[in-house]
Amino acid sequence: MGFFSSCSRALLFIFNFIFWLSGAAILGVGIWILVDPQLKDYMKLIKDGTQDEEFLKTSAYILIGFGSFVFLVGFCGCCGAIRGSKCLLGFYIFFLVVVFAGELAAGIYVAVFKNDIDSKLKTGLVDSIKKNYEGDMQTTWDLVQKELKCCGGDSYLDYQNSTWSHKQSSDVKIPESCCELVNGVDRNKTLCMEATAGYFYTKGCREALLDWVNSHSAILIGVGCGIAGLEIIGLICAICFCRHACPPSGEHVQAS
């Protein structure tokens, strides 16, 4: 029983140390979303296209809150393993189940959002080009088109009959930010802005944004599955440790 107790305690402590680090990582991702300027540009464009006012900030605050909670749960588990306290481990098991349920709810939310965003972006980004390609939104569009190597909402044709196009000469069909770069330089800006084939990005920004969301979602889903697996292992270790290693109520852990 002593050997089993020592192994359970060590495994539980190692697991919770990793879990504690994962909480710190989730907290860091939430802060990163709030401060990263490139991410803000992408989400500003998604916001303008979907009219989803606070998705970015809400997601960041959820991650910060969830990461802080996981951080504290991991700390509680470490203390419970070291002290052999059934009370601490009982709270730890309960909160671990809460964390698991929260991750499941977050996964469903992300899946629903991914399906919903595609339908909204189909018309939202085109309307944004037609009506809002000016001022701050023009700067955002230009940055996104350069970063994602795309042009327009569905295609470069979205610039036709837009508010922006009415202010340009008849030869100018698309903005400079749509121009394809070679070693960071426009091959021919004039031919590009006249929408000459081969000189500008043909991929629409809706497709490019969805590709970006899907690639990052795949990473988050993989990390989430890994953390969920650790949680299940930790839950089993904590229950076994409580049953076999912790002293009965009213007794104290004897010094070896």
UniProtKB/TrEMBL annotation:
Places the protein is found: Membrane
Secreted among keywords: no
InterPro entries attached to this UniProt entry: Tetraspanin/Peripherin, Tetraspanin_animals, Tetraspanin_EC2_sf
Q: How does it sit in the membrane?
A: Multi-pass membrane protein
State the encoding gene: 106073085
Annotated organism of origin: Biomphalaria glabrata
According to UniProt, the name of this protein is Tetraspanin
| Any Pfam family | Tetraspanin
Give a yes or no for keyword Ligase in this entry: no
